[in-house]
Amino acid sequence: MSASLRYVGHGRPVADAALKATGVLAYGSDLQVPGMLHAALVLSPHAHARVGRVDAAVALAVPGVVAVYSHHDAPTRPYSRYRIVPGQEHAPEDETVLAATARHVGDRVAVVVATTRAAAKRAARLVAVEYELLPAALSVESGEVVHRFDHATTAHAALPPDALVTETTVGTQRLHHAALEPHMCLAEYANGTLTVHTPCQSVYGARTVVAELFELSYNRVRMIKVPMGGSFGGKQEFILEPLVSFLAMRLGRPVKLVLDREECITATMVRPAQRSTVRTVLAADGALLDIQVHTVLDAGGYVTSSLDYAEAMAHKLTRLYRTPRYGHSGEVVVTNTPVAGGMRGWGAPDIATCMEIHLDHVARASGCDPVALRMANLVAPGAIDPVSGMSLGDARVQQCLQQGAELFRWAERVNAPAGEGRYRRGVGVACGGHKNGMLSAEFPESSTVTLKMNEDGSVQLVASLHEVGAGTSTTMKVLVAEELGIDPELVTVGEADTNSTPFDFGCFGSRMTYVVGAGVRLGAQRLRERVVQAAAELLEASPDDLHADLGHVQVAGAPGRGLTYAQVVQGTRMRFGGDIIVTSTYQSDSNPGSYSVQFAEVEVDVLTGLVQVTDFLAVVDIGTAINPLMVEGQCRGAVQAGIGSALCEEIVLDDAGRPLDGGFKNYHLVNSATMPRVDVLLIEHDGDQGPYGAKSVGEVAFVPTAAAVVNAVNQALGTEITELPASPERVLAALATVGAPL
Amino acid sequence: MNLHLTVNGIAHEVAIDPTERLLDVLRDRLGLTGTKEGCAEGECGACTVIVDGLALNSCLMLAAQAEGRSVTTIEGLSAGGGLDELQSEFIERGAVQCGFCTPGMLMSATALLRTHPEPTSTDVRAALAGNLCRCTGYSAILDAVTSVAVRAAEQPGG
User: Fold this and answer.
1) Can you give the residue ranges of every domain in chain A?
2) Which of residues 115-144 of B touch A (CB under 8 A)?
């Protein structure tokens, strides 16, 4: 990173921080529209049941209730809540706005609309639904396999006789994304146009689903991204938009639906439960000769993104480890359990958890140090991923591991005794890799943005941004400001609105900074060129002699001869009748690896099985931290979620398929009292194509966390815990298998 | 029934349904939507307000229980639409990301500093233990509260 950069590399709060800290910012649930009605859901209490007669008489008698709908009087056309472009593969249309057959506890079977939310919720409890119970598949063993895959880079070949073969099966659990803001949607229908206010991750994705479902031409569907109180992937599919749009169109009035926490857990989506068997062959010199994986993934009641999710898991490990042979097969199983969908990292944390717990198993079996084993096998800068055939770019994962091990004092701490009393200490390490956008041989990546300069020289960026709360808008502001040499406060950045912002796939695949950010930087360069060209016309000078910076265009070698940006805009408009506005499209031609290596120290209470993380280091191959304040925030937030997934977060189902975690009372997030201090080490370099060398962080920082913590627990106790979370019950059970410690 | 309460220094008389929570009255009847609903069961703290000096979950309190009491919400934290010291510190330290937990965090932290002007780091962690955050990992939030407390202690007469 160049030292001459004015704004890139300097910490900056999120753009709307003051609005948030004063309570002024209106999130979706705060929106009020004249004449607005409120909806409340009736959810299936059964895991699999045909929805028979729906008696709404009592519900309709509740004062304020306007309507009650079930599948008997709602559209029955199926759709995929997951697709973002028409005709998308792996996006089966298996869902309807209201279910005729409930496929999981929490499936939407009816909806009440009333003048107040309280009336709607009261009436929802009074809708009498007759169910015909059907056999329920509550595990993958009894579910329906809807997809199989098998990716292999080479055929099996003979392996050296002294090679070490190790096999580990690791299971990761259903997780709740746990954005603090519950899901919501508000739709209005007037003059043949549907307007939807939604805290989503892709307005154009939501539009293609809703427009085709209701046979509206796309220009008559307006999707507006509204402020979002976190997503972590939980709001990336279009769960509520179809239903709420139906209500607004049917009633001709604005309708708002805000879910409660229990509904967010049961009726939106969860990270899938999956189990993977990892089998590796290790040469005597410590090199991995073969990695074979088989994954079984529980898609839940509807397929949504699970086909792509499972396949994504098969595209991760070769971006992290070198191996001459690699195979990954698997099955996606539909069951009658909560709907599974993408979450932060999209399969990378899941498979990294399996691989990294397995590698500690290999380390124990081979007598090799966990850090040394990984160091001997991690990819190097410039490596080609054999599965995708693409370069991993300036992949610095080895550097992350090396510098992290030094900073964490790994060699010293891994050999320290665990202790013999009630509390045992252990340390763990794990590596993780992720991507930078969705570019592959089959999928192009691009970003189109418009920038316009105002008559005072300030700038507006018009782009389909979906701020999830992590500071994307601030990043884009900084990029524009850096290119134009103006204060970031002179740059206004809006969010996505299909009526006004250019097409964009949305906030997926760690593409925001790397792809969209590069697009914004290109747009700002084009705007600067346009300003210089316009100034040249006004000054009757050659553009080659002009230099734009600090809000001025100067003629080289002619002090005092120049124009302010404001004069350029005003002059262009009044002398030539033109404007300073550019639209440009950036096409990404790379998808390097982003990496994180993390180190955990834990203290385990062998009496209760409780684990406390006592020290944590997250090292991230960031390329360039455009906004270090938010990059570090992303890392620490990711570690909070990762520790939760390692130790306490899990959606547990009873024997009827009912989630036992009706809310945060039973679904435990790590809170401020138990969260350890997290050190963050950023590895910066400038070897990739992101803006100023920046790479993704929000997802990759979550990838290795759970494995680092579980590995530390196993190191402390000499156990081989392979089922997550490592709850007190599991810790005590694992201790029993290695002999009672006390 | 009619409820009489003071919110952010302004006396209100509000006709309410006896089943309404304080959170509903603040958001729906008084339009103070800065107070957020994250779980409705007192676990996440997004709805925290200060009632007669105590930080409380407004989702767990019936509005009727606020009769005659004085309530401070996030909108009342700094007069005149500016930022108080704690708000500024939250912003500068990156303690605000998605922001949905922020009002509740600020109210819990404010109540703490009013009663314990020189809290230990354990006090701060304990005071904020009922406020969940999914974005920040808490560090920036804890640092912001601690640094405001330290600065206040260092001031003459502080």
Assistant:
1) 17-22+440-588, 31-136+183-258, 346-435+592-737
2) 124-126, 128-142
Find the CB nearest A26 among B33, B100, B130.
B33
Q: Three-state SS across chain B? A: CEEEEEECCEEEEEECCCCCEHHHHHHHHCCCCCCCCCCCCCCCCCCEEEECCEEEECCCCEHHHHCCCEEECHHHCCHHHCCCHHHHHHHHCCCCCCCCCHHHHHHHHHHHHHHCCCCCHHHHHHHCCCCCCCCCCCHHHHHHHHHHHHHHHHCCCC
Is the pLDDT at A87 greater than 70? The verdict is yes
The range of the structural domain enclosing residue B24 comes to: 2-76
User: By the CB < 8 Å criterion, does B51 face chain A?
Assistant: no
C-alpha span between A44 and A660 (Å, rounded): 15
A232 Cα to chain B: minimum distance (Å): 9
CATH class label, A31-136+183-258: alpha beta
Residue A589: other Cβ atoms inside 10 A: 10
Residues B52, B12: one domain? yes
Q: Do B68 and B96 fall into the same domain?
A: no
Interacting residues of B22 by C-beta distance below 8 A, sequence separation 6+: B49, B51, B56, B58, B59, B61, B62, B63, B65, B66, B71
Nearest CA in chain B to A182: B38
What fold characterizes domain A346-435+592-737?
Aldehyde Oxidoreductase; domain 4 (3.30.365)
Whether B134 has a pLDDT exceeding 50, the answer reads yes
AA letter at A527: L
Contact A622, A691 (CB under 8 A): no
Give pLDDT, residue B157.
60
Neighbouring-strand partners of residue A478: none
- Do both B86 and B150 map to the same domain? yes
Which of 3.50.50.100, 3.30.1360.10, 3.40.50.300, 3.30.365.10 is the CATH number of A17-22+440-588?
3.30.365.10
pLDDT score of A740: 57
Establish whether domains A31-136+183-258 and A346-435+592-737 are of one fold. no
Judge whether A598 and A561 are in contact, CB under 8 Å: no
Instruction: Give contacts of B 65-94 with A, CB under 8 A.
Output: 73-75, 77-78, 81, 83, 87, 90-94
Measured between beta carbons, the chain B residues lying within 8 angstroms of A233 are none
pLDDT higher than 60, residue A1: no
Distance from CA of B155 to the nearest CA of A (A): 25
Pick from B105, B138, B141 the residue to mutate for testing the A interface (most A CBs within 10 Å).
B138
Q: What does the pLDDT look like over A555-596, one tens digit per residue? A: 998 988 999 999 999 999 999 999 999 999 999 999 999 999
Q: Is A15 within 8 Å of chain B by CB?
A: no
Q: Among B54, B76, B98, give the residue marking a domain's end.
A: B76
Type and span of the H or E element at A565 = helix A565-571
Domains of chain B: total? 2
Chain A neighbors of B28, CB-CB under 8 A: 116
pLDDT digits (tens, 9 = 90+) for A278-308: 999 999 999 999 999 999 999 999 999 999 9
Closest-CA distance, A228 to chain B, in angstroms, reads: 7
Residues A517 and A525: beta-carbon distance below 8 Å: no
The Cα–Cα gap between A263 and A267 comes to 5
Q: Do A663 and B39 touch (CB under 8 A)?
A: yes
Q: Do B91 and A21 touch (CB under 8 A)?
A: yes
Q: What is the CATH number of the domain that holds B127?
A: 1.10.150.120
**Three-state secondary structure string covering A602-626:** EEEECCCCCEEEEEEEEEEEEECCC
Residue in A21, A469, A664 nearest the CB of B106: A21
- Interchain contact, B94 vs A630, CB within 8 Å: yes
State which residue of chain B sits closest to A627, comparing Cα positions.
Answer: B94
